[in-house]
Amino acid sequence: QVQLVESGGALVQPGGSLRLSCVASGSIFSINAIYWHRQAPGKEREFVGVTTSTGSTNYASSVKGRFTISRDNAKNTVYLQMNSLKPEDTAVYYCNKWLPGIGFGSWGQGTQVTVSS
């Protein structure tokens, strides 16, 4: 199975920017959809955005206009560009795949994003 590993989390001040990476062990072109989720302490894992093999994207209303998902099939990588970060964006961020008839793959370690002054 194709494994996904996220990275790039850091401490950033409000209003700052950060780009997270999701690197796959194989081709991401064959994966119908790759999702970004996040989970803040004491809260449920939350949908952030998704990209499909056709390049379409969809975002949660809380991040729309600030976050952008892109993909580089040649590098087997999906990116999450985060701009105008707010303290409420603080969370562990995860990428995962959705497979028709199967659902999500296993959840990895995630990468910590902390937005604080």
Written account of the structure:
- It is a single chain.
- The chain is mainly beta.
- Helix content is 0%, strand content 50%.
- It is built from no helices and 11 strands.
- The strands form 2 sheets. Strands 2, 4, 5, 6, 9, 10 and 11 form a 7-stranded mixed β-sheet that branches.
- It is globular.
Major sheet, described briefly? Answer: 7 strands, mixed
Number of helices: 0
Low-confidence stretches: none
What's the N-to-C terminus distance? 40 Å
Radius of gyration (CA) equals 13 Å
N to C succession of SSEs? EEEEEEEEEEE
What best-fitting shape do the alpha-carbon axes yield?
globular
Helix content: under 10%
Report the strand count.
11
Question: Structural class, judged by helices and strands?
Answer: mainly beta
Strand content: over 45%
| Average pLDDT | 95
Write out key terms for the chains shown.
117 residues; mainly beta; seven-stranded mixed sheet; four-stranded antiparallel sheet
Quick overview:
With 117 residues, the chain is mainly beta.
Element layout with pairings:
Blueprint: E1 4-7, E2 11-12, E3 18-24, E4 33-39, E5 46-52, E6 57-59, E7 67-72, E8 77-82, E9 91-99, E10 103-104, E11 111-115
Parallel strand pairs: 2-11
Antiparallel strand pairs: 1-3, 3-8, 4-5, 4-9, 5-6, 7-8, 9-10, 9-11
